[in-house]
Write a structure and sequence with these properties.
The structure holds two protein chains of two kinds. By secondary structure, chain A is an all-alpha fold. Chain A has one domain. Helix content of chain A is 85%, strand content 0%. Chain A is built from six helices and no strands. The longest helix of chain A has 28 residues, at 67-94. Helix content of chain B is 26%, strand content 29%. Chain B is built from nine helices and 25 strands. Chain B has helices at residues 19-33, 36-54, 216-222, 259-276, 298-309, 373-386, 402-414, 431-449, 463-469; strands at 6-12, 62-69, 79-87, 93-101, 107-110, 114-119, 124-132, 138-139, 141-148, 154-160, 165-166, 184-185, 193-204, 226-231, 234-235, 237-242, 250-251, 280-286, 289-295, 329-330, 339-341, 353-354, 392-396, 417-423, 453-457. In chain B, helix 1 packs antiparallel against helix 2 (36-54), helix 4 packs antiparallel against helix 5 (298-309) and helix 6 (373-386) packs parallel to helix 7. Classes of the chains: A mainly alpha, B alpha+beta. At the A-B interface, helix 3, helix 4, helix 5 and helix 6 of A face helix 1, helix 2, strand 4 and strand 6 of B.
Chain lengths: 153, 474
């Protein structure tokens, strides 16, 4: 389940980031490396795959005029990375033991968490803030969340 | 919640390691290129980082139970283990990974002793797997459970102790015949396999099988190890000696079997198992010194049991001379188990003495040492004179007095080897009883230190279980 979800998310990220030849190549390279990493159950390899997908997303975001698609590609990259790590973890920890329910819960819960963060962020972006440029709103958001995280301890 | 759950670790996992770098990279790229999408992506990354900081490891609100079926399996019988983990808390546990503590040496033959699942409040999961073993006792290790949050960012690793033991019947329990050199070539091929000449069987390889008995052709052909067994053609001459002296007529309490009763029971079991194993078996009592010559026949088996049920092996009448064993030589079974009385037993047994109460001494410290050690030594010497030169001796004695250990040492010195089965009649409750128990344990320890195999047979425990627990199995 986690493996399939990771590959599906990587495919979505690749498709959304395919705005140029370079990003397309990077995206598919990420998928290929991800397949290898899942096959070998290697956490470093799936992380390399995630870096490929992230590179494709960043390059696509630099030239894209549709922030929503860039955000979606990034969220899909994050999900793909998380699901792939879960698949590797479960294989190492539990081997052939039944894990279907855990994986379903994890995929649903993580998608809700990461997707929820993306939706909230995008919703804040789309609100009309008067004279405040959207970029400033996003920067304020980053600063606020960072502050919360830093003060929590 | 299961008592004694111990948290081994609680903290973040490495799940999103590197997320901070990716977030900063996205933010920088977004600011440089003026891409709102990348800055938004950095916002998402920051939110997830904040989540990782505020989320706490799930609580270990678990109840764990283990059920083994059957609980007392026969040899080679598979056992089904059902491990049930229940969420007794009020919060859903979204990531629960359970691994049962299968003891070392057990083989999981079906399914796996682990599961990963999610548990709602009150929900439970059952792990079912099958195991096989060979030893009489295995103790399960604690169950390891890892609980993670829904994204797997933080975890709590706990151990849940579930005290369970499982053991397999290991065949007919018997005593080790020490030393091994006492096993001499005999006319009786023993049914079970082992070392020998004639091929007996090829069986699955077990750990500790000698390398020289591995079937390498089978290994080359199938890739699996197998062990060749040969028909054993060796037999030992074994004499089971029962300590019937009045000093051994001890019981933990009124109405409980005395050490002599238990020794006689043990002797009966040993006679049967040793005869079944193809050995020549004799029977003897210390007081009066009585010997049933070693033999192998079924008629001899019956005779041994008759003698064990008779007064010669009873403390009450052991020395009154009324039994045929008390005569100079009873020859009712020529050539196949003569019954001899090497000497007059002397005194009749006392009434049963509660171990540690001390019939002669108030505190029991010298409770039984008042037994005439010289008479015991003389009786042992007389008995040893009658024993076959190659005989291995199994002595059944509570070892509650100095004379008994002296007898054991003399038997060890004058026979081919000695093994002791010692029914424990001691108890606690008073200082004297405690001291008597301590003295007995010291005697056992010293004998073991001298190389004698000693089984400390506790009251209320079957001899077979005790033998098996000590690893003394056929």
């Amino acid at each position: 389940m986690s493996t399939v979800a990771a590959l599906a998310a990587a495919t979505v990220a690749t498709l959304l980031a395919s705005v140029s030849t370079l990003t397309t190549v990077l995206g598919f390279a990420g998928i290929a490396v991800l397949v290898a990493g899942l096959w070998r159950c290697s956490r470093p390899v799936v992380t390399v795959a995630a870096l490929c997908l992230l590179g494709a997303t960043l390059l696509a975001g630099g030239v894209s005029t549709r922030p929503g698609l860039t955000l979606l590609a990034g969220v899909a990259t994050l999900l793909s990375w998380t699901f792939a790590q879960t698949a590797v973890d479960l294989d190492h920890a539990l081997g052939e033991s039944p894990t279907g329910r855990l994986e379903r819960t994890h995929v649903a819960g993580t998608t809700a968490l990461v997707g929820g963060c993306g939706v909230v962020t995008y919703a804040l972006y789309t609100i009309e803030w008067g004279q405040l440029p959207p970029l400033a709103v996003a920067a304020l958001l980053v600063g606020a969340v960072s502050l919360v995280g830093a003060l929590w301890d | 919640m299961t008592d004694g759950i111990a948290t081994l670790r609680a903290g973040p996992t490495e799940r999103w390691r590197g997320l901070l770098g990716g977030t900063l990279l996205a933010a920088a790229a977004g600011l440089v290129t003026g891409s709102a999408g990348l800055v938004l992506l950095a916002g998402v990354g920051t939110a997830l980082l904040a989540y990782g900081r505020v989320v706490t490891p799930p609580p270990a609100t678990l109840s764990v139970e283990r059920d083994c079926t059957p609980a007392d399996p026969d040899r080679d019988e598979p056992v089904t283990v059902e491990l049930t983990v229940t969420n007794v808390g009020e919060r859903t546990l979204s990531d629960v990974r359970v691994v049962d503590g299968v003891p070392d040496g057990l083989t999981v033959t079906d399914a796996t002793p682990a599961v990963g699942t999610a548990l709602r409040p009150g929900g439970s999961v059952t792990v079912t797997y099958e195991i096989r073993g060979s030893r009489p006792r295995y103790r399960f290790e604690p169950v390891t459970v890892v609980l993670r949050d829904v994204a797997g960012v933080v975890e709590r690793r706990v151990e849940c102790p579930v005290d369970d033991e499982i053991g397999w019947a290991t065949g007919e329990a018997t005593v080790p015949l020490a030393p091994k050199q006492s096993l001499v070539p005999g006319p009786l091929p023993v049914e079970d396999g082992g070392d020998g000449v004639a091929l007996h069987a090829v069986r699955e390889y077990q750990p500790r099988d000698p390398l020289r008995r591995i079937d390498w052709r089978h290994r080359a052909k199938t890739g699996d190890f197998a062990t060749v067994e040969y028909q054993r053609e060796r037999a030992a001459t074994v004499v089971v000696v029962v300590d019937t002296r009045p000093a051994a007529d001890l019981a933990p309490g009124p109405g409980e079997p005395t050490a002599i009763d238990r020794s006689v029971d043990a002797a009966g079991t040993l006679v049967d198992t040793l005869l079944d194993a193809g050995h020549r078996v004799g029977l003897a009592a210390l007081s009066p010194p009585t010997l049933v010559d070693p033999a192998t026949s079924e008629r001899h088996r019956r005779r041994c049991h008759e003698r064990l049920a008779g007064p010669a092996f009873s403390a009450d009448d052991g020395g009154d001379g009324t039994d045929d064993a008390a005569g100079p030589i009873a020859t009712d079974s020529p050539g196949d188990g003569e019954v001899r009385a090497a000497a007059d037993g002397g005194t009749a047994a006392d009434d049963t003495t509660e171990a540690g109460d001390g019939s002669d001494d108030a505190d029991g410290a010298e409770m039984v040492d008042s037994t005439d050690e010289t008479d015991t030594t003389a009786a042992v010497d007389t008995l040893c004179d009658r024993l076959p030169a190659t005989a291995t001796v199994v002595l059944c004695s509570p070892l509650c007095d100095r004379a008994s250990t002296t007898a054991a040492r003399r038997l060890a010195a004058r026979s081919a080897g000695l093994t002791v089965v010692s029914p424990d009649p001691t108890t606690t409750g008073t200082a004297g009883r405690g001291l008597a128990r301590l003295e007995r344990r010291t005697r056992l320890r010293r004998l073991r230190g001298e190389g004698v195999a000693v089984l400390d047979w506790q009251p209320g425990e079957s001899l077979a279980r005790s033998l098996a627990a000590a690893g003394w199995s056929a």
